[in-house]
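# nightly structure sweep
# worker-07 picked up a monomer target from the shared queue
# config: single-sequence mode, recycle default, output format = structure tokens
# input follows
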Amino acid sequence: MSGHNKWSSIKHKKGAADAKRGKVFSRLIKEITVAARMGGGDPNSNPRLRSAIAAAKSENMPKDNMERAVKKGTGELEGVNYEEIIYEGYAPGGAAVLVECLTDNKNRAVADVRHLFNKSGGNLGENGCVAWMFDKKGLIVIQKSAVDEDQLMEVAIDAGAEDVNDEGDSFEVITTTGDFEAVKEAIEKASIPIEMSEISMIPQNMLTLQGKEAEQTVRLMEALEDCDDVQKLYTNADIPDDALA
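# output follows
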């Protein structure tokens, strides 16, 4: 499993299909709106907005959708006021789970998230119960087939990256949040294609799960993934290849 072990890694291993395009667009629009509200509508001076727009473009979101989302965030158009909330809990077997939400109804969001934890054999915890197990880092993923390892190492480290990890079919470049933009720009300038880039929560240690606990954890994460208020999921669960056979 990928070292940073975000939920997307489990989905990739399990062979699960990506979320439907409508759900992907909904989450991206929320992120663009909130980024514009918090940092202004100019992506050149708003790194969060710049990253959100780049992600939207990678999903082939129409330009009009992005522009409307920005205008809703800046107040030029009427829009929903989303609140950012992070919920923390434990999956079956004790794996830590961070749930990032953008919601217009906090009561609904916490009720839905708590119900899904309970239904899947996990439990929702108090604020701070698992966040200390993760570090906020910049994460840039590049397919191995698209780059020479020595070239990537040289470009990334020279630009300020903390580490470059070999994750099977891809490389993961890890940065501080402060160096994230500079490292990403250096990689792009070197004409190295980036598969995914984001500010991520990277676990300090992994917890290996097997059997029923592994299956229950995946079911929990899948259920959370389907929740409309959920934006991103992180876990320190390490699901071996044979655990989901």
